[in-house]
Design brief:
Bound molecules: ligand LCLJCK34, 4-methyl-5-hydroxyethylthiazole phosphate, magnesium ion
Enzyme class: transferase
CATH architecture of the largest domain: Alpha-Beta Barrel
Shape: globular
Organism: Paenibacillus thailandensis
Number of helices: 10
Strand order of the largest sheet: 1-2-3-4-5-6-7-8
InterPro entries: Aldolase_TIM, Beta-grasp_dom_sf, Mopterin_synth/thiamin_S_b, Thi_S, ThiamineP_synth_sf, ThiamineP_synth_TenI, ThiS/MoaD-like, TMP_synthase
Largest sheet: 8 strands, parallel, barrel
Family: Belongs to the thiamine-phosphate synthase family.
Cofactor: Mg(2+)
Order of helices and strands: EHEHEHEHEHEHEHEHHEEHEEE
Structural class: alpha/beta
């Protein structure tokens, strides 16, 4: 497990180079780290082992610079050779005991789970964290049945080790996952497939911070520009961040009154609030 403080590891980004043709993987992940990603996984289902090792070594240099752990998907031997911080194994990958033996007690071993039974078995076996998913159907794991937020609820109630909700999670549905009790989120396409990975990570982090360490604390149903929406924001400032609107020329109307930007950090978003975000359109 090493000396990582899991309280501060809440946003997990996984590489997915097919989602950003023409952009270098290291640049995309660096932007995610600048946006607050707390843990990185190298997942590459097509590279051969030499290439994987090269990628793992270059990612390790980057993650070391940001002080966050690097996990290698599927291959404990590559994790060892690259001096990565751990490995992630799925239910079909097996080899948990061998991975622990190879990497030692100080490295992280994470396990995918799709049911509470698998979660409790991984916890019992000594996993450092588990993945809980896919929460929603996702093109990153096509054909894999979604476990829905029902399993997130079960994990929140029954699992003691850190768990990351994964699968089809975006800033737009994260509040629902947090409301189900998740305190940690993991994403591939929503982050690395975005034009602005940094902004997406900031949006996720704002929701995680607002939800608190047990998840769900600041989840509210509001009317946002006339449509019902679940958000994880206690204040106008947090809402703007979560929606990825920070830095934009924006007016916020809360329950019919314009909220001055200087009081956004204190202006509370209550359950049932009506919020209008009005953008200024640049002109000549
Ligand atoms: C954090 C995290 N959770 C789940 C997975 C999926 O692992 P697995 O089921 O082995 O599938 P592949 O990713 O290997 O296709 C993961 N990689 N990371
Ligand atoms: C690897 C994996 N395991 C369960 S869901 C998933 C894919 C998550 O990717 P995305 O965030 O793009 O849905
Ligand atoms: Mg796997």
């Amino acid at each position: 497990m090493g000396n990582w403080n899991w309280d501060n590891i809440r946003l997990y980004v996984i590489t997915g180079e097919n989602y950003h043709p023409g952009r270098a993987m290291l640049d995309v992940i660096e932007q995610a780290l600048q946006g607050g990603a707390d843990i990185v996984q190298l997942r590459d289902k097509t590279a051969d082992k030499d290439e994987l090792l090269r990628k793992a070594r270059s990612l390790k240099e980057l993650t070391r610079h940001f002080g966050v752990p690097l996990i290698v998907n599927d291959y404990p031997d590559i994790a060892k050779l690259a001096d990565a911080d751990g490995v992630h194994l799925g239910q079909e990958d097996g080899g948990f005991a061998e991975a622990r033996e190879l990497l030692g007690p100080d490295k992280i071993v994470g396990v995918s789970t799709h049911s509470i039974g698998q979660a409790l078995a991984a916890q019992e076996a000594g996993a450092d964290y588990i993945g809980v998913g896919p929460v929603y159907p996702t093109g990153t794991k096509p054909g894999r049945q979604a476990v829905t937020t029902a399993y997130v609820r079960e994990a929140a109630a029954g699992v003691r080790i850190p768990f990351f909700a994964i699968g089809g999670i975006t800033p737009a549905n994260a509040a629902e996952v947090l409301a189900a009790g998740a305190a940690r989120l993991c994403a591939v396409s929503a982050i690395v497939g975005s034009d602005n990975p940094r902004r997406v990570c900031e949006a996720f982090k704002a929701q995680l911070t607002a939800a608190g360490e047990h998840g769900g604390a600041a989840v509210r149903r509001i009317q946002l520009n006339g449509a019902e929406r679940t958000v994880a924001a206690a204040t106008v400032e947090e809402l703007v961040l979560q929606l990825g609107q920070q830095g934009k020329r924006l007016l916020v109307e809360l329950d019919g009154a314009i909220v001055d930007r200087s009081v956004w950090p204190e202006a509370p978003i209550r359950e049932g609030a009506s919020v209008e975000l009005i953008h200024f359109v640049g002109g000549g």
